[in-house]
Every structure is written in C-alpha cells, then in structure tokens.
Specification:
Elements (H helix, E strand, L loop, with lengths): L3 H24 L3 H6 L4 H26 L4
Helix pairs in contact: 1-3
C-alpha cells in the first residue's frame, strides 16, 4: 500500500505545528489560539491532530532509514 499521500499530509501538519511553536518561542504568539480561540474544542483537536502526525512521522523516519539496508 502506498502511503505517500498520508506521509505528506502528516509532514505538512507537523511543519505547521513547528511554525506555531516557533511563533510561540520567538514572539509569544500562538497562531492556533489566535485563529480558533484559547483552548477551544477546535484548537484542542488541531493540537491533537498535529501531535498524532508528529508521532506518525516517527514511523516514516524508520522507513527512510530502512532504505538501502538490504
């Protein structure tokens, strides 16, 4: 099964999460809270989805490291 689309989706979500953390770290500005409200149901769902995407990318990292090890 080709999971390339899911991989890219997870990567984009994780990049968005990283940008949000960068904004928090550098400017004390939480983009998700600004757009969707401070810890609203929607913002919590977004945080959870980004976290799951990051965890999923651990498996992608394992597959990338596995290339060429035959």
């Amino acid at each position: 099964m080709d999971s390339r689309g899911f991989d890219y989706t997870a990567l984009v979500l994780t990049i968005i999460g990283a940008i949000n953390w960068g904004l928090i770290g550098f400017f004390k500005f939480d983009l998700v809270a600004f757009v969707f409200g401070d810890m609203s149901v929607i913002s919590r769902i977004i945080y959870a989805i980004v976290g799951i995407a990051g965890l999923y990318l651990i498996s992608v990292f394992g597959r990338i490291r596995g290339f060429g090890q035959d």
